[in-house]
């Protein structure tokens, strides 16, 4: 069975970096079911083609295993050595694992770069015909070309073969393409050569992250991939529905933030907050950063994109928010060096946690207003006394600015989960008292469009450890 991948991205030889296979070598790999070979029939600046050829040994797979076959020639007379099946998925995982998982040590920027790609699968057994091929690949953004074959050229009355040569063309990252193929090739074949258990459920959700939940045939794909086992595919579908609902909630939250920005439509307020926090963190000279109450990871993404920050830790009490943050950061696809820079922790802001000690800076972006006021004292000790970073950047809403939104009823808080919102005087009184108590200095900065009467929508305090600033 043969899989070929072609790109016209320039220089096209970049494909070899992503695949981690040298274009001048014919490389062979021993697998449990035979051998896999990787070679490049075409390599130039304008076009590069890489091929993965599987040489399946169906007899060797069962030799000495005591398998009792109803048909003695079953290993000799079958299509398994010649068609793309679950064997190909295993080969993608074992031979092209770095590319499948989105890792490229030498050229990490290529991992997230969409490339013009053409992939040809020769041949693909399809239980469902040409219509199923188009219904599965076209929603993923591929142009699909299909070549069919007669079952036997000498006997045309026998009809068409269930095997097709399929050519897909689209602009994707290589990891996206390989993840699609990893999941979908066994789905078309509707057979697997290995046991399907809980680990296959996790593989489906991992490799289907970001695309399967929105696919119109996600039910059929899940059932086929998991061999129609109800305990597995029902769990998969439930988790896919949960993922879709979470994405819809994120969109709703973003819409709410846009509505909050009505007085200044040029730049969303949340974006201005993140920009202000990032500027303060950069100015501190920090190399290690805590994002406390990191939520779904928006600030973490900004931090990861800045090479100044060598150690980044996000902490949140919500496991679900951490899962979303991991997806937003694409932790399972990051190059190893990048992945080592960031870590997600589950924990509370009101308990001492030694994992949070020794950092240069900490950021709390729109966090404290979600705590009940009696619990603020616990956060103060955890952060200023025990974790004790050199710099702390903290933002919170300015209640006085709420009158600027016509859609916000009088005396109503901006968010249903806010426990309080402070005026500028209340925030400055609290922050100054905390700074004096724990040996910090503090300065205050407005975030967002500033009104002469009511100030800015967000207020930011930058705390600096006095012993640090004095040196």
TrEMBL record:
Q: Which UniProt keywords apply?
A: Coiled coil, Magnesium, Metal-binding, Methyltransferase, RNA-binding, RNA-mediated gene silencing, S-adenosyl-L-methionine, Transferase
**Which reactions is this enzyme annotated as catalysing?**
small RNA 3'-end nucleotide + S-adenosyl-L-methionine = small RNA 3'-end 2'-O-methylnucleotide + S-adenosyl-L-homocysteine + H(+)
Q: Name one GO biological process term.
A: RNA methylation
Cite the InterPro entries for this sequence: 3'-RNA_MeTfrase_Hen1_bac (IPR024026), Hen1 (IPR026610), Hen1_N (IPR024740), Hen1_N_sf (IPR038546), SAM-dependent_MTases_sf (IPR029063)
Q: Name one GO molecular function term.
A: small RNA 2'-O-methyltransferase activity
Coiled-coil intervals, chain numbering? 234-261
Q: What class of enzyme is it?
A: transferase
Q: What is this protein called?
A: Small RNA 2'-O-methyltransferase
Give the source species.
Answer: Gimesia benthica
Taxonomic lineage: Bacteria, Pseudomonadati, Planctomycetota, Planctomycetia, Planctomycetales
